[in-house]
Design a protein that fits this description.
Layout (H helix, E strand, L loop, with lengths): L20 H13 L3 E5 L3 H5 L12 E3 L5 H14 L6 E7 L1 H5 L2 H10 L4 E6 L36 H6 L5 E6 L3 H12 L5 E6 L3 H4 L6 H10 L5 E5 L2 E6 L6 H5 L10 H23 L1
Parallel strand pairs: 1-2, 1-3, 3-4, 4-6, 5-6
Antiparallel strand pairs: 5-7, 7-8
Length: 289
């Protein structure tokens, strides 16, 4: 992709917080997918962002559904379009990490097992941000939330969503972030042109939940990649491909920009660094296959 599409589908005056990674992600995703797109959104931040009753700032049809049913509803809408012979409409589920890693995992697994022809997007801000910043299984080690306040911050690793979905043998899985917009849009275009179930995992900085400065969201997303915390890669038909090699920047640069990590000391930063190293050792073996 040489240039970013100038067509702005996402409308102004939406209700997102300043610096919202999920909204910047939606803007780029819609540029890649185009106007023949239908979005399914569960209970999440985007339920609010899209506007009050009578408003639809996404700029394309949006179906609001229950917290746990994103993938099931998206599959049903796609099946309806297929029966009507409308094969040129992209159906995209768009859910947060709470509605994906946790509450919606069963519907996600079902759609993946059936290889339903939808794009499922998880905009991952690593907690239940819309309902009070509670811990989810996407919350990383050491992060403070309202249900894991210091000194009882989360002590378990983040669930590996991409590898869970890969176990279903679907055609396309990818990770992306707003720090690399062309990479993000290229992956959405590839998902659009791939038949079957597709998952895109987006790292989405959340200033209120991450306790960060609104203007630092892109920098935080970039550091998530460059420290190795959030690898950018694709899995096409089971084959892993790295799409950006990180510099393995000191993880403290990433941690210090977010108040949710302010209680961590250098010893805990070393633990996080070691966790990154161990994960990359596993990933590197897959990239070499």
């Amino acid at each position: 992709m040489k240039k970013i599409n100038r067509d702005e589908i996402l409308q102004a005056n939406h209700l997102a917080c300043p610096g919202c990674g999920a909204t910047l992600s939606m803007r780029l995703a819609l540029k890649a997918l185009g106007r023949k797109t239908v979005i399914v959104i569960p209970a999440c931040c985007w339920t609010i962002i899209n506007g009050p009753h009578g408003k639809n700032y996404a700029g394309v049809p949006v179906f609001h559904t229950a917290f746990e049913t994103t993938a099931a509803v998206a599959s049903g809408i796609k099946a309806s379009f297929d029966m009507q012979g409308k094969s040129d409409i992209t159906v995209m589920g768009w859910a947060g990490d709470g509605g994906t890693f946790d509450i919606g995992l069963q519907a996600l697994s079902g759609a993946a097992e059936r290889n339903d022809d939808i794009i499922y997007v998880c905009y991952d801000n690593e907690a239940y941000m819309n309902t009070g910043i509670q811990r989810s299984s996407a919350t990383p080690y050491g992060a403070a939330t309202t249900t894991t306040p210091p000194p009882i911050q989360k002590d378990r690793p983040k669930k590996d969503l991409m590898e869970i979905v890969n176990a279903h043998e679907v055609p396309y899985i990818a990770s992306a972030t707003i720090a690399y917009p062309k990479d993000l849009m290229k992956k959405f275009e590839k998902a659009k042109n791939t038949r079957g179930f597709k998952l895109i995992h987006l790292f989405s900085p959340c200033p209120p939940g991450h306790k960060s400065v609104e203007s630092k969201s892109v920098e935080i997303a970039k550091l998530a990649v460059e420290t190795g915390i959030f690898p950018l890669y694709e899995i096409e038909n089971g084959v892993h491909k790295l799409t950006r090699k990180p510099k393995f920047t000191d993880v403290r640069e990433y941690l210090y920009l977010q108040g949710r990590f302010k209680h961590l000391d250098d010893k805990e930063a070393e633990i996080i660094t070691e966790n990154i190293k161990q994960r990359w050792e596993k990933l590197t073996k897959k990239f070499e296959c």
